[in-house]
């Protein structure tokens, strides 16, 4: 920022252009996008063993009727995401303070917290209801389920961050991430023939996309400097 006086005869259009350029530089200086994506990638990868060891798979008879429950989603993801959003908010605020600019990360963090509470309540309700009311769902219901799952809410919150930062690159990345997260990916991979590993490919892909995004935004930020 500058405190130099503006010449009285300055061209208004040039002044407006300078103000817009300065505002854009401030918005760019506010961004620590790579750190947010890195934290979310780490949370996704660390969640894999929790999802695996707390997964419940019970089959009866010839295996045609099975109960599948990802208990790790409730044991791990709510506290992990709350800590992740807190860490991201603290990092943004510290970087903004060091650079002498403002930070607009709190609406993103609060959105993430709200979505975490929403998905936790939805999954608890489903856990209580569906074991005694089994039924088949149309595909759109399954897509909605993946959207309110932790990996889906990560993408929804990132849309808010992209809007706050006016970051077109993050918007495009987030739309790509949501496409990957909402489309079931398993490549027919069942480790050692076990159905309880069917979630692994999707979660690994989700984490890898976030990690690659963190690397890409970090390299882009370094080139700008």
Automatic annotation (TrEMBL):
UniProt KW Membrane keyword: yes
Transmembrane found in the keyword field: yes
Keyword entries, A-Z: Membrane, Transmembrane, Transmembrane helix
Ranges that cross the membrane: 32-55, 75-93, 105-125, 140-161, 168-191, 203-221
Name of the protein this chain belongs to: Uncharacterized protein
């Amino acid at each position: 920022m500058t405190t130099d006086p503006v010449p009285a005869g300055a061209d208004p259009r040039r002044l407006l252009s300078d103000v817009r350029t300065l505002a854009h530089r401030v918005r760019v200086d506010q961004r620590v996008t790579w750190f947010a994506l890195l934290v979310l990638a780490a949370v996704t990868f660390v969640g894999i063993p929790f999802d695996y060891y707390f997964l419940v798979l019970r089959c009866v008879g010839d295996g045609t009727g099975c109960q599948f429950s990802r208990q790790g989603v409730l044991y791990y993801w709510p506290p992990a995401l709350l800590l992740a959003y807190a860490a991201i908010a603290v990092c943004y605020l510290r970087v903004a303070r060091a650079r002498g600019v403002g930070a607009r990360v709190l609406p993103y963090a609060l959105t993430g917290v709200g979505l975490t509470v929403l998905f936790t309540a939805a999954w608890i309700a489903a856990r209580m209801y569906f074991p005694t009311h089994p039924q088949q769902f149309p595909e759109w219901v399954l897509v909605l389920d993946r959207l309110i799952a932790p990996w889906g809410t990560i993408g929804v919150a990132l849309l808010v961050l992209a809007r706050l930062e006016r970051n077109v690159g993050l918007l495009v990345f987030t739309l790509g991430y949501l496409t990957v997260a909402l489309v079931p990916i398993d490549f027919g991979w069942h480790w050692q023939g076990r159905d309880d590993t069917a979630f692994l490919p999707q979660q690994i892909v989700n984490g890898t996309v976030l990690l690659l995004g963190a690397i890409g935004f970090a390299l882009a930020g370094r080139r700008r400097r």
